[in-house]
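Inputs:
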Amino acid sequence: MNPSVEALRRQFPDGVGRAMESCGQTIVYVDRARLLAIMTWLKESPSAAYNYLVDVTAVEYRDIERPIEVVYQLRALQHLGELRVKVELPKHEPLTVDSVYHLWRAADWLEREVYDMFGITFAGHPDLRRILMWETYQEGYPLRKDFPLRGRFSRAEQVRQALHANPEAHYSLEELSIERAYRDLPADMRDRIERGERDRVPPPPGEETQGE
Amino acid sequence: MSRRVVELDLATTGVDAQGRPLRVPLGAELEPPADEPDFRAEHMLVNMGPQHPATHGVLRLVVELDGEVVVRCIPHVGYLHSGFEKLGEYRHYNQIIPLTDRTDYLSPMSNNVCLAMAAESLMGIEITERCKVLRLIACEMSRIISHIVWLGTTCIDIGAFTPFLWTFQERERIYNLQEAWTGARLTTSLTRIGGMMADIPDGFERALREFCNTFPKVLDEVDSLLTRNAIWCGRTQGIGVMSAEEAINYGLSGPMLRASGVAYDLRKDRPYLGYETYDFEVPVGEHGDVYDRYLVRCEEMRQSIRILQQALDRLPDGPINVDDPRVILPPKRAAMTDMESMIFHFKQVMEGVPAPVGETYVAVENGKGELGYYFVSDGTAKPVRWRIRPPSYINLAALPKMAEGSLLSDLIAVNASVDIVMGEVDR
Amino acid sequence: MGLSPLGDAPDLGGAVGGRSVMSQISPNWVTSRLDFLVNWARANSLWPMPFGTACCAIEFMATAAARYDLARFGMERLSFSPRQADVLLCAGRLPFKLAPVIRRIYDQMPQPKWVISMGACASTGGIFDNYAMVQGIDTVVPVDVYVPGCPPRPEGLLYGILLLQKKVRGETIADASLREERPLEPGGLRIPARLVDEISEPFGNSVHQSRSA
């Protein structure tokens, strides 16, 4: 068992849950509310010094009762220690957790991917939008267990939505720092961005009915 | 559009008192006419990709340009998202191996090895000695071909076409070896849980040794073309600098991390497959620029040759597969004649090999960086979660940091130096 | 390997400009000589637009490199701009996010244009029968030659190119429907929705492989 677990328990007596070993690797569960404080301590305290964020991901189990876990794989390059920190998110509560973006910049895209695939929001992340699917993707969060392998819509509907998604037209507000480019956008897109509507897919031109 | 009339003072001789040529700025004294917008103060928003020859796959870069200077660069990925991780939840562990060929398709054998190692870690299987050495050989061959592709395509991006042809010719020789071993040039599916798909064929050792003898000469030729070339140095030195602290904070790995001066290599610091018993060095750079990454990768190729020679020397005899019929398919002759073997075969193919409840994260030092597989198992034959820790994805996230503030052509060079493969970035 | 079985969408009623003149001349000796010349020129200088996405792109690069050499088939100049290309060579898997991109690139290519679908993923979706992958680019763009393989060997790709050259040589300028632009139908698809669903259905082993546990 990684000695950081004991040190962590001493430092945060109420924030640390169960700890275990699996395949020679140490896993420790922490409380969602104390996550940021715990991660900051793990990174900055000289005994722990986990300065390298290896991975951020999430796991949803096949057992519906089990909460979704957000998994952080940490490494200390100095003393070559590894630690896996997990936060449990019960499914009946909103799936939100604090972002560790400001501790490790590696979390930038990693958390975006977890949001894209699981729908978990990271509070404090400066630019949380979909990264692997296009921003107006309608079918849901692919890696959830209730999301079927082939997606929710029929293949024809998926092709139709994909062909009209036009991801290149959906710039984020961060990209539109140039006023001129913003003025050049089509009026309806400007309106949608101003209203904050990121999730609406414009209906394909022509009928609303399914094709022939 | 009004036409601006530019008048030069043509009475100058063209050289100044010291004989140096005079530069007469075009229109420097002239004010643009009042009705014409002043283009010098505006930024351009340019979209590169996803279909673009220099983005190394389907990467889209939204670039804000102030003239030629990149003010902001925002990469968009996901154009090759293939749902690997979702597919992995519907496949037995052995069935995931062909999927791993297609993530990092430039160095497929190392992905296969990493997956087999991860599944074996989960199941608590110890592989044989011969299997370890063969897997190490596969990993080093993969490192070489990955770096070869990087070298060829980076040269094309920066403008040198010839090394591409030379390096791809060398790649063909490794392809011959891969094809002789596994039957496929690119999608090798080399390993199985507990062993390998097949032993090396006759003549493989000899051919690989020949490659090890001749490949350094090709590297020397490319080296002579590039390393002291003024154009190459001018386009790569000082470009895309990442300091060591930044590299660690951004989670970079592989040559990107080492070129920035961080001496961290999984083969040395968390050894696997017996790397601690081999005699090799890990090149570490100083400046963290594109030139250092080039030097690090070239030296890594030479060290890989060194490791390959040592591995070939010490290749032990023996079985390649672990002697456990619940995990490894029995030989066909036994499966066709012996009832028990047939049942083992049936169970493995139809139900897969179940892994005990648990989870594991296993990482190898790929050519691109730290490739890790995270398996969570609930006791069945299909994982609950298969996570690929993609080195290219995390390295690419640092691209804006490296490229902002430099020229557009430097952006291309920096993008090339990150050594991404979009199959892995998007999975 | 085969030529496209999906057929063409219904004729949009007459072609553009001078083509309608050509299509009114019944094929004769003059048109056949002209065909020979035009098709010879086209077939031997097909400029590919490499839409390389994944592993097949690497095999495509290997085909273009020194050992297998595409240049001897007239495909010397890889055109990365669709405006100057003849053949859209989709090498690699096509996720849904990339579908509008390939459609736009196909629309940007001027006639005459052909499409080679290289690899199993581009032809049918390959091993990726899931939420993210287009099950064959023929649901998005019309395909002339399918090259199976995962990835196809360079020799396989070369055979597909030779097959395309054969197809090009078999064309005639008297048939205007060959060179018509067929944009997406008003419903947003290239072919009827039930046809998309039909060709995207899982078959073979894929049928059994969607049980999670």
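The longest strand of chain A covers residues 68-76. Flag for discussion at group meeting.
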